[in-house]
Every structure is written in structure tokens, then in C-alpha cells.
Design brief:
Chain lengths: 277, 294
């Protein structure tokens, strides 16, 4: 198995996949922490599904599907940010935008009639990432990581304690729009690995797992990135030596991490005599 | 209107400003409106450094808006307001802010000391650890509210009173001159209400800090409030507690018969049950979402 792995890693597509996977995992792990704390799973889904529309639309006019995905999800982020002024309205706005976007995606898919490509976008196709795509992914990853780094503290403040953050002069509204754009970029990245339908595996599970393991906010961010890396890299390596899809392995590893944190951490605390619940 | 006459008694006399120290805050014929709806109009009052002002009134009367005006988050439609010697500016480091107890999500990865730490650097861009000096400030703020025993616990698992203590530490860690408190006692039980009021009142006395304390029930702060402002239906009255909380003034504000009763050291405001249906001593509290006063 090790021999097979070494052999497979000699191929360019496998190396591309691994590099892309690492980039995606770092972005997804960082973003996931805040997606969970801000209760934005629904928005993640909307961004991914309209990204699917963008992707199929771009294929139709002969452009890169990765670029289309990015365009679709960024436009959706912009619409959600512009229309969803009030928080209680946001769910409905997200739903409305998502439903229409997906409708268009169905049309585009029917028009160019190549369902294999559509399935790659829906379920992920990290092993089909070209060098050009890889450059694009790397660029987006750098922008997102730098962006999150710059707004890390005010984003944390605005996420856990929005009322006080605003009183202390944090531009809460600007921060939430900027975060939505970072999220759109992260979604476009993560779709490459796990696809539209399994997007929550990389954008929810790592953050949710980290929350279960530590109350230290900095450590939680590091843990979230760690879980995303473990799931992505582990998933790609396992897929290289077997015939099962990458997305399945990524989803499974992430889920096992979550279960271990969910049930293992309280058990450990009980053993150490720390009262829980 | 009889109520407006109270304005004169509330402020320092005009023309002596040079000899008197600068007021901590000063409203001058200030009107706040959201679109066409006037929240309060022509508000004029002055609060001197070290004073404790209680802001009273029914829900939706614009008490929170008053704080937002001081924070520079709600611009006035007309008139002016000065805070600590200048116009309100967002993120003024000399202003501390204590919100109402809203409760944290049980699993949020945040410990007590992290919450207080956000009061030091949460508004700064970038990432990074607190400096040694800042960590020492966090430590002494925790000490001041006796929160050190649970400073490393996840905030979501602390009691309401413990969370509010941490919020006071967070507001005081920057060593402010003015503390704005928006219903900090809401949904706390009596014992915690007393503890939290004492912490804020004692800080004001010890440090000569100015406090603006929004509350729907005046009774917990009766021992500390130097003056009160009562806002309702766009009208207001400001002055000492015994000047404002009288049947005459309150009836003028509500434009309906209102009686102010003093029972066993507590103040109860009672209107006709069929009328406005208000009762500032009501035990229930309905939180108003920020910025949603329409």
C-alpha cells in the first residue's frame, strides 16, 4: 500500500491534488471556526449551490469552471450581504437566492448535456485540478488567509459579542460583509475537494469539532485547521490507493473526528474528575 | 409643558463653564429621530464627572438610543451632544460599555479572561497575543470584580451574574472615564442585581467615574443615582430622583393620571390599568434588538 502510494505520488495530478488539498484545508479550517460561531451553515449551502450555477454557466461559454464557481459564490455573497440587512430576514433572502441559482444551474447542465462535469462539481474532483486551477486556488487561498488574518480580532469580537463590539467602535456591518466574501472564496475552494453537496464537511465539521475540544479561542482555530488538514490530506491519500472517491474519505475522517470530540472529550473530562454538564 | 421647566434645574448655570470643570456629557436641545419617528426631542441635560445618571422609561422609549447617541452610533436629527469634552466618536477608548445579559452560546470557545481581553484588543486589526502589560490589566480587572476563580471557565457555562461580572471587568479594563450600562440587570435575580449595581456604583465612587445606567426599574439603583432622566413618548424629564419621580411630573410625561408611590423604600409607578398599561417596576423585560426601535 505504501509502495502504491509512493508510486501514485509520482504523478503530477496527485501532487496537484495534494497541494490544492492543503491550501483548501487551511482556508476551510480557518473559516469553519467562524461559520459555526455565526450559525451560517445555510449561507454556506447557498454559496456552494449558486457556485454550481456559476461553474456550469462558465463551462457553457467555454471558461474555467473554477473561475465560474468563484464568481457564482462571490456574487451570491454580495447579494446576501446587500439584501440581508436585518438578521431575521437573512434566512429567507438566502433561500430565495439559492433556489433561483440552482434553477439556472439545472438549465445550464441540460444545455451543454455533459453530466459527468456536473457530477464532478457536485461531488468534488480534486484529482482533476489542472495547474492553472491550482494557481487560481493558491491565489484565492492567499487572499483569504491574509484577509482573515487582518480582521481576526475584530471578527472574533463581532462574532462572540456583537453588541459590545459595536459599542467599542468595531465596524460590525463591514466585518460581516467582508467575512461573507471570505466565506464565498472558501466555499469555492472547498468545492474542489468535496463538491457542492458535501461542502459542510469542510466548512462546518472542523469548527464544530474544535468547539467540542477547547474553550481557548486561539487553540480552537488551530484545532479547526488541524481537523480540516487531517480530513483533506488523509482523504486524498486514501483515495489514491483505493478506488473510492476522495469526498467519501474526507467526509468520513471529519465525521470520526467530530464523534471522537463529541463523546471522547466528555469521557476524558469525567476520567479526570472535571464535572461536565 | 410643565415638564420642560425641569431643564433649567438639571444643568450647571450657563456662563460659569470656565470656572467649573468640564461636564462628562452634555445634551443641548438634542432630538433623535428614526425617519419620521421622533424618539425624544429637545433633550437638554448635563452630567458632571463622577455622577451616576439613571435613564428610566418604558420599553421602546429610546433609552438605548440615548446610549447609542453617546457612542456615536446614532446621529442626532438636531441639537448637539458632547461626551467627555467633544462630539461623540465611535470607539472612544474613554467609554466603557456594559450590555444587558444576553447569555452566551454554551459551546462558544471563549473563556472569561478572553472576554475581558477583547475589551483590550478586540477592536484592533490583525491577530496576536496580549502583551505582558495588557495581560496584567486583564488580571487586575478580573480581580476587581472577583471573577478570577472562574476566569478560565467557558463563558457559556457561567451563571448570568458571573457573566455580567466579566462584562463589567471587560468594560473597566480600559480604565474608562464614562461607563454606559444598557439594562445590565435585566434577567438577573435580586441577589445578582444588587451585586452588579454595587460593583458599578462603587467604581463610580472610588474612581470618580461617570455612569449612565439604563434600567426599567429604578429601585436597584436608588442608593447610587445622583439624578435620573425619564423618557416616554418622545417627552422627558431630568433632575434629582425626588424631583422627577413624582405623581405630578410623571402624569405630565404620560399625559395621563399616574401615581408614584413610595413603599418600604421602593418606588412604584402606577397608571390606570385601562390606560397606557405601563409599570416601570414590572419584573418582565422584553429585550429590544439593537437598532430596531421603529
Amino acid at each position: 500500500m505504501i509502495h502504491q502510494l509512493v508510486y501514485m505520488l509520482g504523478y503530477g495530478f496527485a501532487q496537484n491534488a495534494l497541494v490544492a488539498g492543503i491550501l483548501v484545508a487551511v482556508v476551510a479550517g480557518l473559516v469553519s471556526r467562524f461559520v459555526v460561531a455565526r450559525n451560517m451553515s445555510f449561507a454556506v449551502h447557498a454559496l456552494a449551490e449558486v457556485g454550481f450555477t456559476g461553474s456550469t454557466g462558465f463551462i457553457l461559454i467555454g471558461l474555467s469552471p473554477v473561475l465560474g464557481l468563484l464568481t457564482g459564490s462571490l456574487l451570491t455573497a454580495f447579494f446576501i450581504g446587500a439584501l440581508g440587512v436585518r438578521i431575521r430576514e437573512r434566512d429567507a433572502v438566502v433561500g430565495v437566492v439559492m433556489a433561483f441559482g440552482l434553477g439556472l444551474g439545472v438549465l445550464f447542465t441540460a444545455l451543454y448535456a455533459r453530466y459527468a462535469t456536473a457530477i464532478a462539481i457536485l461531488f468534488g474532483a480534486i484529482t482533476e485540478v489542472s495547474l492553472g486551477d491550482l494557481m487560481l486556488l493558491a491565489g484565492v487561498a492567499v487572499v483569504t488567509i491574509v484577509g482573515l488574518g487582518v480582521m481576526y480580532r475584530p471578527l472574533t469580537f463581532a462574532t462572540v459579542d456583537p453588541v459590545v463590539a459595536e459599542a467599542r467602535g468595531v465596524p460590525v456591518r463591514l466585518i460581516s460583509i467582508l467575512f461573507l466574501l471570505m466565506l464565498a472564496a472558501a466555499v469555492a475552494e472547498a468545492v474542489q475537494v468535496v463538491g457542492v453537496l458535501l461542502i459542510l464537511t469542510l466548512l462546518i465539521t472542523p469548527g464544530a469539532t474544535a468547539e467540542r475540544l477547547t474553550a481557548n479561542p486561539g487553540l480552537a482555530t488551530v484545532t479547526s485547521v488541524g481537523v480540516a488538514l487531517l480530513a483533506t490530506v488523509g482523504g486524498i491519500l486514501l483515495a489514491l490507493v483505493s478506488s473510492w472517491p476522495v469526498s467519501f474519505y474526507v467526509a468520513t475522517i471529519a465525521f470520526v473526528c467530530y464523534l471522537a470530540a463529541r463523546f471522547g472529550a466528555p469521557a476524558l473530562e469525567r476520567l479526570q474528575g472535571v464535572p461536565t454538564d | 409643558m410643565s415638564v420642560d421647566r425641569r431643564r433649567r434645574g438639571a444643568g450647571i448655570p450657563a456662563g460659569t463653564a470656565a470656572s467649573v470643570e468640564e461636564p462628562a456629557m452634555c445634551f443641548d436641545r438634542a432630538t433623535l429621530a428614526y425617519g419620521d419617528r421622533v424618539v425624544w426631542s429637545e433633550l437638554s441635560m448635563t452630567v458632571r464627572p463622577g455622577e451616576f445618571l439613571a435613564v428610566l422609561g418604558p420599553n421602546g422609549s429610546g433609552k438605548t438610543s440615548l446610549l447609542r447617541a453617546l457612542l456615536g452610533l446614532a446621529p442626532l436629527a438636531s441639537g448637539s451632544v458632547d461626551v467627555l469634552g467633544g462630539p461623540p466618536q465611535r470607539g472612544n477608548p474613554a467609554i466603557g460599555y456594559v450590555p444587558q445579559h444576553a447569555g452566551f452560546d454554551r459551546d462558544v470557545p471563549l473563556r472569561g479572561r478572553d472576554l475581558v481581553g477583547l475589551g483590550v484588543d478586540g477592536h484592533r486589526w490583525g491577530f496576536g497575543r496580549l502583551s505582558r502589560a495588557d495581560r496584567a490589566r486583564v488580571e487586575s480587572a478580573l480581580e476587581a470584580v472577583a471573577a478570577r476563580p472562574y476566569a478560565d471557565e467557558p463563558v457559556g457555562r457561567l451563571s448570568g451574574g458571573e457573566q455580567q461580572r466579566l462584562r463589567i471587568a471587560q468594560a473597566l479594563v480600559g480604565d474608562p472615564k464614562l461607563l454606559l450600562c444598557d439594562e445590565p440587570l435585566a434577567s438577573l435575580d435580586m441577589r445578582y442585581q444588587q451585586e452588579i449595581t454595587e460593583l458599578i456604583g462603587d467604581w463610580s465612587r472610588d474612581k470618580r467615574g461617570t455612569v449612565v445606567f439604563v434600567t426599567h426599574d429604578v429601585n436597584p439603583v436608588l442608593g447610587y443615582a445622583d439624578r435620573v432622566v425619564f423618557v416616554v413618548n418622545g417627552r422627558w424629564a431630568a433632575g434629582r430622583t425626588d424631583e422627577v419621580l413624582t405623581s405630578e411630573t410623571m402624569s405630565g410625561l404620560y399625559e395621563a393620571p399616574v401615581e408614584v408611590l413610595r413603599v418600604r423604600g421602593r418606588i412604584v409607578v402606577v397608571g390606570e390599568a385601562s390606560g397606557a398599561g405601563f409599570d416601570i417596576d414590572e419584573p418582565h423585560h422584553f429585550p429590544e434588538p439593537v437598532g430596531a426601535h421603529q
